Amino acid sequence: MKTVILGVTASIAAYKSLELTRKLVKRNIKVIPVLTPEAKHLVPPLSLESLSSHKTFCDFFSQNESIIHISIMNETDIIVVVPSTANFIGKLANGIVDNLLLGIVFASDKPVLIAPAMNKRMWNNPILSLNVKKLKKLGFYFVGPARGALACKDEGLGRLEDIDVILEEILSLLEDKKDLAEKKLLITLGRTKEYLDPVRFISNDSSGKFGLEIAKVAKRRGAEVSIIAGYTDIKIPSFFNVIRVINTKGMEEKTVKTIKNMDVIIMNAACSDFTPKSVKKDKIKKEKGDITVSLKRTKDILSLIKLKKAKQLVVGFSLDTKDIVNSAKRKMKEKGVDIMIANPANTVGCDSVEMTILTPGGKVNRFQKMSKSDAAEKIIDTIASFFSNRNINR
Question: Would you please indicate which residues are annotated as catalytic (active-site) residues?
Answer without folding.
Answer: 152
